[in-house]
């Protein structure tokens, strides 16, 4: 996955065609760097949701977040402690703004070829 790839919002539930997926905000400090803990993991906050099927573009590089801190992942069994997931900044076409989305909730529909 790289900056500029086109995505479509989806869910990990195979037959779910309607609904929303939570969107997050990742805090930055005064130097415009992501606020992370000693393990390099951020603490995102929920800022809303987008509809399944929404489209957008990857707008930057991913950050790591604890899987259990994300909405819908609270009851996921961890794999031995620090189970993290990547969050990507996505520019959403319909909403005309950036929101952070877990990697499990989108698929690439077109992108760069090398």
Polypeptide structure, described:
The protein is mostly beta strands. It has one domain (6-108). It contains no helices and nine strands. The chain has strands spanning 6-9, 20-25, 41-42, 45-51, 55-58, 63-66, 84-92, 97-102, 106-110. The protein starts with 5 loop residues before the first strand and ends with a strand.
Shape: globular
Number of domains: 1
What distance separates the N and C termini?
Answer: 12 Å
Which sequence of SSEs, written as H and E, runs from N to C? EEEEEEEEE
Q: Which terms would index this structure?
A:
114 residues; 0% helix; mainly beta; 9 strands; single chain; 7-stranded mixed β-sheet
What's the SSE blueprint?
Layout: E1 6-9, E2 20-25, E3 41-42, E4 45-51, E5 55-58, E6 63-66, E7 84-92, E8 97-102, E9 106-110
Parallel strand pairs: 3-6
Antiparallel strand pairs: 1-5, 1-9, 2-4, 5-7, 6-7, 7-8
